[in-house]
Fold this sequence. Notes:
Blueprint: H1 3-24, H2 28-48, H3 52-77, H4 89-112, H5 127-135, H6 143-164
Helix pairs in contact: 1-2, 2-3, 3-6
Amino acid sequence: MTSNQIMFLLFSAVIVIFSILTVTSRRILRAATYLLFVLVSTAGLYFLLRYNYLAAIQLIVYAGGIVVLIIFSILLTSHISEKLPTASLLKKWPALLVALVGAALCVTVILQHNFPGSVGNTELVSVTDIGNSLINYGKYGYALPFEVISVLLLAAMIGAIVLAKKRKD
Length: 169
């Protein structure tokens, strides 16, 4: 095994283990910390693939900004020692079923897809073309996906605040 394969296995194991811990932890602050490990390991995979810019954005925006914002919102709205209630069996079985169906669907699609090899792109790209792609809403534009991700992150923040908010029973 090469060192790249070992690092890939290490990062993927950390992602799988801490993802499971994130969704099964009853303490919300621990879940946010586990999410931080998942996001940092994802950045490690990007570095391994030599997508340095994407890895840096992953670390700065997601691991640095979003997780810190989630942790601050948890600390401002609840007690650190507060535990989430245990889910009932009526909620666990459908969740397990949906997770297994989703995993089976992902594995099936990956195994049935033909991943053709590609020859490196020898075409030079100018900074102007990159800038136009970043602000373009049309084909090969990145503005619309960026806006969609912004709305998704806003929904995640609202969900984190709602979950972290202390009940006044």
